[in-house]
Amino acid sequence: MATIQSKDNKTIFFNYFKSLSQTPHRLRKRMLATWTPDQELNQVRLRSGADMKRKLRWYDLVALGVGGMLGVGVFVTTGPVARNHSGPSVFISYIIAGISALLSSLCYTEFSVQIPVAGGAFSYLRVTFGEFVGYFAGANILMEYVLSNAAVARSFTEYLCSAFGISDPNSWRVEVPGLLQGYNKLDFSAVALVLILTFCLCHSTKESSILNLIMTAFHIVFFGFIIIIGFCNGSVENLVKPTGLTPNGIRGVLDGAAIVYFSYIGYDSVSTLAEEIQNPPVTLPVGIIGSVFIVSGLYCLMALALCVMVPYNQIAEKASYSMAFQRIGWKWAGNIVGAGASLGIVASLLVAMLGQARYLCVIGRARLVPSWLSKVHPSTGTPLNATLFLGLCTASIALFTDLDIVIEIISIGTLLVFYLVANALIYRKYVLTSKNPPFPTLSFLFLITSCAIGFSISWKLEQQWWGLPLFGGIIMVVTAFFQYTVPCLGQPSEWSVPFMPWPAAVSIFLNVFLMTTLKMLSFQRFALWGLLITLFYVLYGVHSTFEAEEMGMEMEMAVNEVPNPSIQLTKLEV
What we know:
It is a multi-pass membrane protein. The chain has 21 helices and 2 strands. The chain has helices at 2-21, 23-30, 37-41, 58-86, 90-114, 121-129, 131-163, 188-203, 205-233, 249-260, 267-271, 280-309, 320-327, 331-365, 384-400, 403-433, 438-461, 467-485, 502-516, 520-560, 565-573; strands at 174-175, 185-186.
């Protein structure tokens, strides 16, 4: 028995090294390989076995989008950004980030209506730019989800402490002296929360949606309480004291916008539920765009309420709202805020963990990760394996890692994926759908990106102000010229982004600009992550998809070439 097992292991290793020797050939075949929307909707989806159950309506989607964003943004990023970057003008940072998120959400909406599958950006990019771009975006989305969920789970502990009147947020964490700073405070309550939500999501999507709907309704009422009490008990003078509305200038406002973009993670979770909603062409636009509008308004009001209660330089970086109420003498309200914020964080985690499992499920269908991650449980209609796997990953990171370490790498990954989706929408509408030659569209996308980078460099250098009107003007002229000279034909009968290509072009510009405002350390960490996921694709993903798609296709052709397929299949098996 041991001898047979040893021979099997040797055979596996031999076959793997033989596959590695064919890597250049397989990369050429698979990197730019695309699927049609029809294949994505039917053939690929069947690999999960059972179908996901269509039980969600438009109000479920709006509630899931609002619930997914609210707890993350206000309670995690507003305090640190107001204190260290934007000052009292943090609400302007939210407006800028909200405009960028709204433009990106328009791009997401058109794709989700045309390709209503659970893969979100991964599926949209795979059918447009090919397998590797889709995989790279999907891996970054997963990284963004897991890290942000871990960070938010740790914030849950901080607000829960304030709900019980405990001022030190680390009092419920266990400090381990031997570990590195930033990784040395173990948070077991965050781990418990993640694991409980993981098991809830394994059970049913509809029941999880009802739970989220109840929590989100309570959460909006709770937001109203904070906004009203904040404005009634605050002072407008705090918006200009001690150093004005924008203490770090417009640069601080834009740096803050890039960081608070983390707050808008959540609306893309709605697009991953496309296989579980009724009437996708109507429900998806309402769910995605409606949730972004509602959340943007609430973010601005909440940020203003915080800054009128307390001068920006006295805002606490941890549990900012609870500490602000305690500073104005409303300790009991601080405890209520802690409890309400904890509930909001639970709602946002629920939605984000719902979305991350569906991304991984569809990536598993494509065979870019092990296929057992794509299985849908026949009785619950949920991607059980993907939910459990990512829940354990999130819990492991939440146990060790502080928010400050992950927040900027989350923003850069999110901005990159939204940038790619905007590019993909233009390419799909003007090349794949309209049947125009690809060169004019690719040249337009290259020029827009290059000018956005030039504008951003001019902004960074401070002295080169002439570059701002130059590159900004080029972007406007090039976009107008492209709109006039390249026809956009074959508009889909369902929902479509209006005034193309302007919304997508502005989205490209804003995403590039906001990325360049992040710190160099974020790019270094992101480069390391990009190298790791590229290595995984080269060593595993491309071989798995080659064997699943190319070799499977060859076998099917061989079977179809003979009159008796059963005889030929027997020969192949032998």
